[in-house]
Every structure is written in structure tokens, then in C-alpha cells.
Amino acid sequence: MEVMLYATPVLMAGLAALCLVGSTALAGPEWEEPTGDAGNTLGTAISVGTATGGPISIIKGKLEGNGVGGGFVAGDFQDMFRIYIENPADFMIETTWSDSGLPDPMLFLFDREGVGIAASNNFGDGLQSRLDTNDADMPLQLEAGIYYLAITSAMSEALGSYGGETGSMFGMTDPDRLYGQWGPIEYFSQSPLAGWTDATDTANYGEYEMLVHGVGSIPAPGVLSMLGFGAVGLRRRRRQG
Hints:
disordered N terminus; 3 helices; mainly beta; about 30% strand; disordered C terminus; Jelly Rolls
């Protein structure tokens, strides 16, 4: 981790010993959603980490759908994870496609309080999604710290709330654009996550794989505090999209 360059050997040892891993963790850089399913709220999100406390290169999981055909019935169309962005300059997450995988995913990034930072539907020539600090049209401005990552079945969008009403947090009208914090309905975009719109295709589910850059295992809260990152991820610079 970059922050270790400024830590004492004792503190470095403590960080390694106190790494927080999720309900299920692998011994290498790949992390897989544990049995029981990740939730779709901040309170039910699963922490991502490895047994070795090293960087994460792949996050795997599955959206189960609802198992029925015809019409929308509530089911598993969103998964949410708690991640630690340790190198914001290199941060990127992108989904990959396979014949048996989730055909059309969406990605969302939230701060530690659940306020939306970025969202992606499609990038390139296909239906996969990508969040990228170095996106040419909307480079993300992030600091090292704890964030929430969600993958959903398109078009299940994040909702914000204002005055007792809910609305689209990002107002995602262009499927090929990376959306930032400031959407066309700003009062919805400034609130914490309030829910999700329904998925529009009940057959759009399956296994997914996210390639990850700049993300490490989540340090224990006490270690974050010792390193001076207790409040990191709570705030960020806001800019026009």
C-alpha cells in the first residue's frame, strides 16, 4: 500500500495483522462473492479483502435474477460491496463478458455515506461497464479510503431522495457516458442511496467478473485511524459533469 511508505515497521506489521476480510476471502488477488449473496444497501454490502491483505485484481459474483419469466418480480438484480481504494490515480473497474455471464451490467460508485460519485452503463462498442479515474470526458476526483461499489442488471439505477420523493441519482439518459456526481436533478444526486429502480429485463442476470485496479484489502478501522485515514472517503471534491 502506498501509505506504508510513511509508516513505521511496527505500524506496518499491525496493518498486516489487522486487515479486515469479507465473509469469504481467497488467498490471492481474486475475491468471490460468498454464499448468501451480497445485499443492495450500505448496511448489507459485503467487505472485499483477501487473506493476505494484498491488492484486489478481480471481483467475482452472480446476480441470480428472479428465476421466473414474464413481467418484473423482485429478485437479485443488484450486488453491493465495500471496497478500499488505495491508489486513486490508478483506480479503474470494468466488467468482462462471457457466454454464461451477465449480459448487460451497470456499475455505480458511492462515497462512505452512500452519496453517488460515478455511474456507468456502457463503454466501448459493447454492453459492459467501466469506472475510470482517468476517463477522458469525466476524470474522477478521488482520495484513498472506503467506498461502496455496486453492480446491477441494466437498467436498475440508483435512487436518491429529496422532500419525501425519490428520483434518479444520476439521470442516466446517455448509455455510453460515464456519469459523475452532478446530474440533471441535483437534489436527488446529493442524497445517500435510497433504493434502486427495477431492472428492465428479467432475463438479464448471471455471473459477472470485474477487473480491478487501485483497490486493496480493507484495513481494520483502528489501522485506518492510526494512518490518518479515519475520515477519508467521507468527502470528495465536487465538480460539474
